[in-house]
Design goal:
The chain is α+β, with helices and mostly antiparallel strands. It is built from 5 helices and 4 strands. The chain has helices at residues 23-37, 44-60, 66-80, 87-95, 106-114, and strands at residues 9-15, 118-123, 152-155, 174-178. The chain has a 4-stranded mixed sheet with strand order 3-2-1-4, covered by helices on one side. The two termini are 20 Å apart.
Length: 185
């Protein structure tokens, strides 16, 4: 037991990937077809380790949309194994993030929590593919350069819809918002 008074909170927020979404399964499902086409069969842990290093390197530079990070990751994994991913494979992988599966307990847990709390997803990933929009979805003034996005919060959809289909967060975590009417003792 944590000793935390959950009655003091009215809303919970969650990061998406690694908390609600099984990003490792999604990445593997996206990489495997390209690797199989080249007869590359490596253990999951190895593929994830190679991919993670490449993704971290791609994220270390100037801001890039997550789709671009994914594309660079796939190209990098292919190069690591001495093969080449074709343009269609790279595009499919970059587009696959919305199809990554939730963890088996995510849907039921969110449904249960939604009975008592407002729920939200916080993400730093882009949710727009429009090149004239900044990652935080405000129009970019002419001549300005892209910058890393601030965390954006979006309400958790009703439990009958998938709460992860338009999300793009990648690290784990959650937070709670105190009830406005509560007093601290």
């Amino acid at each position: 037991m944590t000793g935390l008074d959950y009655g003091r909170f009215e809303a919970l927020t969650f990061d998406c990937y690694g908390t609600l979404i099984d990003w490792e399964s999604g990445i593997l499902a996206g990489l495997r077809p390209m690797l199989a086409r080249h007869a590359v069969d490596r253990p999951d842990n190895e593929l994830l380790e190679v991919y993670a290093g490449l993704e971290a390197a791609a994220e270390a530079g100037p801001y890039r949309r997550y789709r671009e990070i994914l594309a660079a990751g796939m190209r990098g994994v292919a190069a690591h194994y001495g093969v080449e991913a074709d343009a269609a494979e790279v595009t499919a992988f970059a587009d696959s993030v919305g199809a990554w599966p939730p963890f088996p307990d995510s849907t039921a847990a969110l449904a249960t929590l939604h009975q008592q709390f407002q729920l939200g997803v916080i993400t730093i990933a882009t949710t727009t593919s429009s090149p004239d929009r900044r990652p935080d979805s405000r129009p970019r003034s002419s001549g300005s350069s892209p910058r890393r996005p601030r965390a954006a919060t979006s309400p958790m959809p009703a439990t009958s819809r998938s709460p992860w289909s338009a999300s793009g967060c990648r690290a784990s975590g959650s937070s709670m918002w105190p009830r406005a009417s509560s007093t601290t003792t």
